[in-house]
Design a protein that fits this description.
264 residues; mainly beta; Jelly Rolls; 2 domains; 8-stranded antiparallel β-sheet; 5-stranded mixed β-sheet
Amino acid sequence: MPTERGLSPISGPRVIYADLPPDANNDIADSISVGDIWIDTATDTSYICVDNALAAAAWDSMGGDVTASSTTTLTNKSLVDSSTYIIDNSDATKKAQFECSGITTGTTRTYTFPNSSTTLVGTDTTSTLTNKSGNISQWTNDSNYLSKSSNNDPIGWSIESPTSTEDFGGIKIPFAVTITKISCVLVGSASPSVTWTIRQGTDRSAAGTEVVTGGTTTTNTTSGADITSFNDATCPADSILWLETTAKSGTVTSMHITIYFTRD
């Protein structure tokens, strides 16, 4: 028999230490009792006897004993978030911790890692995103503020059957930008034409400042007409951009405005 420590069979289970796992022959003939514990010191694995029948003993693994230096795979275990940390390999004072309190009661959330090394993006941190795509109309917060931080990405509007008195939109940009180009294209017939202007300011109810003084008349129905010369292209943080029309002729089915900018 391997060495043993612990209580006698009369008073309780024994703890048996060996450098190999138990088998069916470690049975009642070896004074094994149900409930005895066998520790394989070679693999740091514990077993408990569930049947001590002669030549047919049964032992269930209790899993590896977790020690400071052992390599152990845990299964069917739960870790408490408030006392579980991931620490830096060179500075143990640098710690990370998961918090599960925001999950609905009775719910398990699964996080799947991408097949790539990457960096997490926080909701309240300054981050630069690259190689991403998405619908800019969905990049808004609860107050419908534009919150996209990429440079030189377009915003704009499409207006069906515009009139000569449109006062449309109100995109709020939470950071300072400089407009670099505005494109407009019409869909229509019978020589469609629309005179329009982009205004900006921090008060949507005020007159605002025209980006191009006097506005622009567009008749283009193919590739669009680009504007790159402005009277006031600089928009302070929290500026609101909107579109106004002052004239329309012909049949204009729709007009499409795209504004390009860089973040200051």
